Amino acid sequence: MFKRTVWQNLDMKEKQNRPFMARGNEITRFIFNAVKQGLLQPYTDDSLAKKMPIEEFVQNISATGTTMTDEEKRFETQRIKDDDFLTAAEKQQRIADLNKGGGAQEFDPSFFTQIEVKEDWVFDKVRSRLYYDIQSLTIFLPAERNGETGIDKRVASFKYVDLAKLFKSSPNAVWFNALNNQEHKNLSDAFDLRLFASRIIKVSNPDDNSLNDVYGEGKKGLMASEWARQQLMEYEHNLWEF
User: Fold this and answer.
1) From the CB of residue 11, how many other CB atoms can be counted at a distance below 10 Å?
2) What Pfam families is this protein classified in (predicted)?
């Protein structure tokens, strides 16, 4: 038995990942609504050791201490009107708060375009098969949306087993097939079939260093990511020979 833990970044702005972010059916929208309804437990990080209170989660997805432009207010107003999970009274109150600048306003779920996948790569010699066992998904608010800090903001981590259960039970958990509308897939199936594009950002190591920690960002970091993927696949190939 061979196992390595691998962390990968999914940039939801990439073309291959856009089916996870179909307008109104974004994976992030589905997850956020599930948390607010009490159907899904968020955690502070991908160790999944500490549960995150709902108040902290809402704070993490909100724009605090920022001033919205008129265009952003119009966009946010329309988003509130289109939110089927809010009552008419809640919509009215949120729009009123938005117009008078009161309270923290939640970012639109489509803004959260960085997702980190932590998974175990397990090679079973008995079955001669490589398994990808996803442990968690962590959602980030990208740096360009995070005010003046200039860094990605961790929102929350989620157990993948909890997510998969929710995905399978909901007709709204859709991976959008733009080429054939009769072949949309459930989000759980999309992850099982590896229908996403990703970049390796860390492989389990004694110092818990990411590839950027070792090689830096930019071109060297990208090359290190591809090299790590090739090394893992080559190691898997060699295991088949025994």
Assistant:
1) 15
2) GldN
Dihedral angle at the C-alpha atoms of 154, 155, 159, 164, nearest 10 degrees? -120
Q: CB of 198 within 8 A of CB of 8?
A: yes
Check if the beta carbon of residue 203 is closer than 8 Å to that of residue 4: yes
φ/ψ (deg, to 5) at 150: 75, 15
- Mean pLDDT for the stretch of residues 184-212: 94
Q: Which two tokens stand for residue 174?
A: 């859709």
Q: Round to whole Å and give the CA distance between 151 and 120.
A: 27
Long-range contacts (CB closer than 8 Å, 24 or more residues apart) made by 210-214: 210/7
Burial environment of residue 185 by CB neighbours within 10 A (0 to 12, 13 to 18, 19 or more):
middle
Q: What pLDDT is recorded for position 124?
A: 78
How far is residue 154's CA from residue 125's CA, in Å, rounded to a whole number? 37
User: What are 91-142's pLDDT values in tens digits?
Assistant: 787 787 777 655 567 888 999 999 999 999 998 777 777 889 999 999 999 9
Cβ atoms within 10 Å of 132's Cβ, excluding its own: 13
Q: Read out DSSP for 5-36?
A: EEEEEEETTSGGGGGGG-TT--HHHHHHHHHH
Q: Is 154 helix (H, G, I), strand (E, B) or coil?
A: strand
Closest listed residue to residue 192, CA positions, set 133, 232, 242, 233: 133
